[in-house]
Write a structure and sequence with these properties.
Elements lengths: L2 H17 L9 E4 L8 E4 L1 H7 L3 H15 L4 E7 L2 E6 L1 H11 L14 E5 L11 H19 L3 E8 L4 H13 L5 H4 L3 H25 L4 H7 L1 H14 L3 H25 L5 E4 H17 L4 E2 L5 E4 L7 E5 L7 H16 L3 E7 L3 H13 L8 E6 L2 E3 L2 E2 L10 H19 L7 H21 L7 E2 L13 H17 L16 H11 L1 H11 L2 H21 L8 H24 L9
Parallel strand pairs: 5-6, 5-11, 6-7, 11-12, 13-15
Antiparallel strand pairs: 1-2, 2-4, 3-4, 8-9, 9-10, 13-14
Helix pairs in contact: 1-3, 4-21, 6-8, 6-10, 8-9, 8-11, 12-13, 13-14, 15-16, 17-20, 17-21, 18-20, 18-21, 19-20, 20-21
The chain binds one RNA strand of 77 nucleotides through strand 1, helix 2, helix 14, helix 15 and strand 15.
Length: about 600
RNA sequence: GGUCCGGUAGCUCAGUUGGAUAGAGCAUCAGCCUUCUAAGCUGAGGGUCAUUGGUUCGAAUCCAAUCCGGAUCACCA
């Protein structure tokens, strides 16, 4: 139990005893004490004034006295300033915590709680390579899954590959028209990029045809419908759903090119999945459920054969679930997948890591699932995150203005190499060790950059400015970890056994100690909010506090042996928490850098 | 137009769910490496928390209105 929880409980009990009426933890607030005041944690007294009809100071004095008398091992002193009761936590409490956990790499992690949940993330389309926006999704999904694991959940990481549909046909048509039989092998272009280029080509040609038709007198809408390349694409989708052999062969060939490319990227960025679904398998189940929904009158069929759901009574619009030509839409396969996930894994919760541009889609999906009475429909949760934007607006694959994932990872590794060589601290590393180090630092910088921001908020990336390696960054935190490891290598074997309290803590020692103690609470908070940035901000705070401490006070050369042992333990616990926290973000921390 | 999200330092972001004098990083300026790793540390400058009103002991935080920006409302995914 954390100090805050202890304090909340103790104060609730004390108030009830002193004043003879019932209190709960919500009747007052507990904060960390501001550095300019004496104490560690603060009870805000104002909210108690009304019900007790006493001054804040009178309440504070009684509460402070009672708390210290009844919890001598926890609190040793208090003061009251302007309605704030500041309590000082006893040194022995901190000493005990340190000696118990300084070497515990699992500090803050919980035991299995028996709940099973699924995190769906990444979920690429097979018509274009991964870009920076997708990286935010990948890092977020992976990290949230790890945070759930650390909180005791049984987690299944999953990915739905959107491997079919009109968008895939666009790349296929463009390849037929323009490629002259070229392949990734003949061109030397990575498969996902190769196919993505044809997706862009489709769009260019489509635009050109629309303009031509408009010049011939058609309206925009007519031209979009009549453009030959679009008609060919729609025909191809029909042929695909009919299983026409040459279309299927081309589809398989091109998708395999993309998968070969994705494999390389996924390996590089550390995305992995326990289960991969393919839309080409799930859409049929979706169509089956649509048919059943028609029987149940959840869906209605229009005269032109298209199938709809009317959500106007829920404050939404009508939504199509199957086209008039009988082909399935995005929603169709998502309905099928929702059921399949539950059938296969009997999950308690199903989390979808999907961009906020699809808030409406996900709201509709959940509503449909509920109306169809799919199992566990109410436990569908959309983890919605903001787009990564460039200074001049949104990234769009079909217009080619994207920050490519492979390129930016390579760029980060290149910068890591450059900076490492400049500093020249790891000249004895083997070639292999160097490659791993550049990778960990470069990718660490990138992951931290994307994860340190609240997922719900959109973020701006300026390619001109690149990603920093100084300050509130991954490499700064990695550096402090390496620095601690270096100290521990030189002065190993810390133990406080046989030592008493080494004469109180210095302010920076205390600050670090208080922060370290909060790690379990932070994991809990990050889990509740599904928010890795809480971990990122916290780990940075730890590293920053340690860094100040490190420059102010010598660890190996401390004034006394007790002080030295205490500081070694503090350093060790700091390193463990940095490592543990960074691992929850998917970032490795080097022993040296 | 309907719905939803956002607006905090020059830039990128925090702000413990209503608490004490609103904080970091980058950028700018001034210091600090014969001592445990300077990817570092210390300090300075930089704010009408979009605006106005309200709620109360107390508001960046809650409510209302207004202004600005974005997403979405597709037989695209």
């Amino acid at each position: 139990m954390s100090v805050v929880e202890n304090l909340q409980q103790a104060a609730t009990a004390s108030l009830t005893t002193i004043f003879g009426q019932a209190f709960t933890e919500k009747d007052f607030q507990v904060n960390q004490t501001k550095p300019e005041f004496e104490g560690d944690y603060t009870v805000v007294l104002f909210s108690l004034v009304k019900s007790l009809k006493l001054s804040p100071d009178a309440i504070g004095t009684k509460l402070g006295d009672h708390l210290i008398r009844n919890n001598p091992s926890l609190f040793t002193a208090y003061n009251i300033i302007k309605g704030f009761l500041n309590l000082t936590v006893s040194d022995s409490y901190w000493m005990e915590l340190l000696s118990k956990y300084h070497n515990d790499e699992c500090f803050g992690k919980k035991k299995m709680n028996g709940q099973k949940l699924m995190v769906e993330y990444s979920s690429p389309n097979t018509n274009k390579p991964i870009h920076l926006g997708h990286l935010r999704n990948n890092f977020l999904g992976w990290s949230v899954a790890e945070i759930f694991k650390a909180s005791g959940y049984d987690v299944i990481k999953t990915c739905i590959v959107n491997d079919r549909g009109i968008h895939i046909c666009k790349s296929m048509i463009a390849w037929q028209l323009f490629a002259n039989g070229a392949t990734p092998e003949t061109t030397g272009i990575k498969g996902d990029h190769f196919v993505g280029n044809y997706y862009v080509k489709f769009n260019d040609e489509y635009k050109r045809q629309v303009e031509t038709l408009k010049a011939e007198g058609l309206t925009q809408e007519e031209a979009e419908k009549e453009a030959p390349i679009m008609k060919a694409t729609q025909q191809m989708l029909l042929d695909w759903e009919a299983g026409k052999t040459d279309v299927m062969a081309l589809w398989k060939k091109m998708n395999n090119w993309v998968y070969a490319g994705f494999d390389i990227t996924y390996k590089k960025i550390g995305s992995d999945f326990d289960k991969t679904y393919y839309e080409s398998n799930t859409y049929l189940l979706g169509k089956k459920i649509v048919a059943e929904g028609l029987q149940k009158n959840v869906f209605v069929q229009e005269a032109d054969n298209s199938v709809w759901i009317d959500l106007t009574t829920d404050g939404l619009d009508k939504k199509i679930v199957q086209r008039r030509d009988g082909t399935s839409v995005y929603m169709t396969q998502d309905i099928g997948l929702a059921e399949q996930k539950y059938d296969e894994y009997k999950i308690d919760r199903s989390i979808y890591v999907i961009g906020d541009e699809q808030n409406y889609h996900m709201k509709v999906l959940k509503l449909i699932a509920e109306k169809l009475q799919l199992p566990n429909a109410e436990n569908i949760y959309h983890l919605s995150y903001g787009m990564v934007e460039l200074p001049n607006g949104k990234m769009k694959s079909r217009e080619g203005n994207v920050v490519d994932a492979d390129e930016i990872v390579d760029e980060m590794e290149r910068v890591a190499k450059e900076k490492t060589e400049e500093l020249g601290k790891v000249k004895d590393f083997t070639a292999e060790e160097l490659v791993a180090l550049y990778h960990n630092i470069g990718l660490g910088a990138l992951k931290f950059f994307l994860l340190r921001v609240d997922p719900k908020k959109k973020m701006i990336f300026n390619p001109e400015e690149s990603i920093d390696f100084h300050g509130f960054t991954g490499p700064f935190i990695q550096f402090n970890h390496a620095r601690i490891k270096s100290i521990l290598r030189k002065a190993p074997g810390s133990t406080l056994q046989g030592f008493g309290t080494p004469g109180g803590f210095l302010p920076l020692e205390k600050e670090l100690m208080v922060a370290l103690e909060q790690y379990p609470t932070i994991i809990q908070q990050a889990c509740d909010e599904m928010n890795p940035s809480a971990i990122a901000i916290y780990v940075y705070h730890i590293a920053k506090t340690f860094s100040s401490f490190y420059t102010e006070h010598s660890i190996a050369g401390a004034e006394t042996e007790e002080k030295k042992q205490l500081r070694l333990q503090l350093a060790s616990m700091t390193a463990n928490i940095i490592k543990s926290g960074m691992n929850l973000l998917g970032i490795a921390v080097p022993e040296r850098m």
